[in-house]
Design brief:
Keywords: Signal. With 263 residues, the chain is an alpha+beta fold. It has two domains: 4-25 and 183-244, no CATH class; 35-181 and 247-262. The protein has twelve helices and four strands; from the N terminus they run E-H-H-H-H-H-H-H-H-H-H-E-E-E-H-H.
């Protein structure tokens, strides 16, 4: 998704920056779900590095960490699942979340179908995210992607299967989230209005850059450039975009990808 860049007056830019908190207060429920994956990412890394090599204490600890995170946030996760428009994704995600706590007590006749169902559900969630156009629907599945893949990777590890392919698929899924959910309505303005003295080469210029996420949350940052360099690059807007997307799956993907790629 390409960024739509707007030049605004300095007064408007400053006003936007000063009213970020008032216009778009943080939503506690969203903040909680966006922080879920960061709480289990170390367990996911363990599953990625040790899955398929036999069950051991590290995998046991990773299992307990994921199950505990699912159980402690189950109602909130289920609320997000209820909002999924695709019935098949909703059903398989709900089944995985509901049953994962019983993974140790499942006989082989149930464990195999559970693992297959969780893995198929992870793939289905990625496909659904790529296909859906509505930003609310895409964001909802993006927020749940880490939950689904964590359970699928746990199932593979429990079955003594390598989890690397699932990790690679999760990375690709979060890369898609990073692109699609990046706030694209952005602009910039002079941070110091009223200064009519032309800058000289090498002098600093201060800009306020801002981005507006689809849900109405705003983000801003101050950027310094040195005349005649212009700061209109994607990198200059990264901080504002991340702040604007703090309550969306964009923040989950941006924060998770470096750790997952290094796993």
């Amino acid at each position: 998704m390409r960024k739509r860049l707007r030049m605004v007056s300095a007064t408007a830019a400053v006003s936007m920056a000063l009213t970020v908190g008032a216009v778009a207060p943080a939503r506690p429920a969203q903040a909680a779900i966006t922080g879920w994956f960061s709480a289990v990412i170390s367990a996911v890394v363990t599953l990625a590095s040790r899955g398929g090599s036999g069950w051991d204490p590290q995998l046991e600890a990773a299992k307990q960490q994921i199950i505990s995170a699912v159980e402690s946030s189950k109602q909130e996760i289920l609320n997000h699942i209820d909002a999924i428009a695709a019935a098949d994704v909703e059903a398989c995600t709900q089944a995985a979340v509901t049953k994962v706590a019983q993974i140790d007590s499942m006989p082989g006749s149930l464990l195999g179908p559970f693992v297959n169902g969780a893995v198929d559900c992870a793939a289905l969630s990625s496909s659904y995210f790529n296909a859906v156009q509505d930003p609310w629907a895409a964001d909802n599945i993006g927020k749940l992607m880490g939950v689904i893949y964590s359970i699928a990777m746990l199932g593979f590890a429990k079955y003594n299967l390598s989890t690397r392919t699932l990790l690679d698929n999760l990375i690709r899924g979060y890369q898609a989230v990073q692109v699609k959910m990046r706030p694209s309505n952005c602009g910039m303005g002079n941070a110091y209005p009223g200064n009519d003295i032309p800058p000289r080469p090498g002098e600093p210029m201060y800009w306020i850059v801002w981005c507006d996420a689809y849900n109405g949350d705003l983000g801003n940052a101050t950027v310094i450039s040195y005349y005649p360099q212009q700061p209109v690059t994607d990198a200059a807007f990264d901080e504002a975009a991340l702040q604007a997307g703090r309550n969306t799956s964009y923040a989950i993907a941006v924060n998770a990808l470096p750790t997952l790629r290094a796993a």
